[in-house]
């Protein structure tokens, strides 16, 4: 089996308060069959289950979020749990760091 994982995208989304923008993120993630999606500048203080579904959709079914401080910042990592596992993670004031393991090979990054 290959030690590679599907596509990974890092995207400064410049706010996910608008449902239309969340839809664009989900459609892009699905179109490219992403295994991992990292979003910066989400500008969301609260992540409801509805917002999580609107961003990750059915494919990106797990996540780590760092809420925004007011209208500043915010980050999220979404992943396809059938492709990768997050072994460990840490959230800082402005960042999320994660150790990702590819399920098909056990390779980590």
UniProtKB/TrEMBL annotation:
InterPro entries: Endo/exonu/phosph_ase_sf. It comes from the Eukaryota. This is Endonuclease/exonuclease/phosphatase domain-containing protein. It comes from Triticum aestivum (Wheat).
